Amino acid sequence: SFDFCFYLLAVGILGSRLTYIVQNFSEFQGQFFRIFKIWEGGLVWYGGMACSVVFAFWWLWKKKLPVLKCADAAALAHAAKK
To answer: pLDDT by residue (tens digit) across 47-75?
Structure first.
């Protein structure tokens, strides 16, 4: 489970950055290495969310875990916190 959470975080950051780069491509033309400078800002939350959700479903499918039951369990855990 630790591996899953670590990879999910990494994929979320990567997806956030890639979405920002796609939306603001002209900002990076001629300055390739600025792509890696996430400390200067430039993360888009919905890019990270979308990539993380896709990755989570793929990871669960690859590990042969019941994808929909795991999603239901995560939703119930989230609802119980409120």
So the answer is: 999 999 999 989 989 989 898 888 777 77
Secondary structure of residue 31 in the 3-state scheme: coil
Quote the pTM value.
0.76
Which DSSP letter does residue 43 get? -
Pairwise CA distance, residues 9 & 24, whole Å = 23
With vertex at residue 39, the alpha carbon angle to CA 51 and CA 55, rounded to the nearest 5 degrees, is: 10
- Smallest Cα–Cα separation from 58: which of 2, 18, 11, 17? 11
Contact (Cβ atoms closer than 8 angstroms) between residue 75 and residue 47: no
- The single-letter code of the amino acid at 78 is H
- CB-count burial class (<10 Å; 0-12, 13-18, 19+) for 37: exposed
- CB distance 29 to 50 below 8 Å: no
